[in-house]
Specification:
By secondary structure, the protein is of the alpha+beta class. The protein is built from five helices and three strands. Helix 1 packs across helix 5 and helix 3 crosses helix 4.
Length: 88
Amino acid sequence: MKRWVVIFRVLANINRLKIIEMLSDGRKMNVSEISQVLKISFKATSNHLAILKNLEVLESQGMAGHVFYSLNAQLPADFRKASSLFLK
């Protein structure tokens, strides 16, 4: 039950939902690119990305001095189930 509470707290933030939606097409983006699209600070974007990465929703890969984020291909089943309610 506790994990579901965490998942729904993560999904309760519009910026985190937008990040998941942005990356759902297989795209890889760095913090600066994501913060520009969302029109929020670099620090706020980094915090959202860290939350999603800790829940194993995102993967990160360092390239050319930047960290690029993408949706985890092995998205946890419980998160996939919950996010399907919000994302089509």
